[in-house]
Design goal:
163 residues, mainly alpha, rod-shaped
């Protein structure tokens, strides 16, 4: 007689398996499934959070790019405006300098003309004074004797033409 026959071994193995399966189903199956389910939920939540973070990073990157683009455009506009202002200031300064130069030239011309006129008047006065002085001396010499007076009168009468 054998203590363990193959049929009895299968019988007891099946019974032990069923008891073990019932014990597992009653005591361990629910906690194991609960742990697996909670782990699955935490993984899904982590994946959702990671996806949300990725989307937020994309949005932030896009916002940063947009802000950089706007800042560059604003910088370019400011530089362009500064260049235009510089060119306008230079043009205004040139124009003002030309106007002032033209005024100075006109004032200088007027001063030169005034000095010229004054010099001409002074020269005319000196010439007329000198001419009168010379004429006076000549007339004194000419009219100093009677004979020269007579010649002068005859010469003047000869120069005068009768109508």
């Amino acid at each position: 007689m054998q203590l363990t026959s193959p049929e009895s071994l299968i019988f007891w193995t099946t019974i032990i398996f069923i008891v073990f399966f019932i014990l597992l189903a009653k005591f361990a199956w629910k906690p194991i499934l609960g742990a697996v389910k909670s782990r699955e939920e935490s993984i899904n939540n982590a994946l959702a959070s990671a996806e949300a973070a990725r989307l937020e990073m994309q949005n932030l990157t896009a916002d940063n790019e947009r802000i950089l683009k706007e800042a560059r455009a604003e910088r370019d506009a400011m530089l362009k405006e500064a260049r235009e202002m510089k060119e306008q200031i230079i043009a205004d300064s040139k124009h003002e300098a030309q106007e002032q130069g033209q005024k100075l030239i006109e004032q200088a011309k007027a001063a030169i003309e005034s000095e010229k006129n004054a010099a001409m008047a002074e020269l005319k006065l000196q010439v007329s004074t000198l001419s009168l002085s010379i004429a006076e001396k000549l007339l004194k010499d000419e009219l100093s004797n009677k004979e020269s007076q007579t010649k002068l009168v005859e010469k003047m009468l000869g120069d005068v033409k009768l109508n």
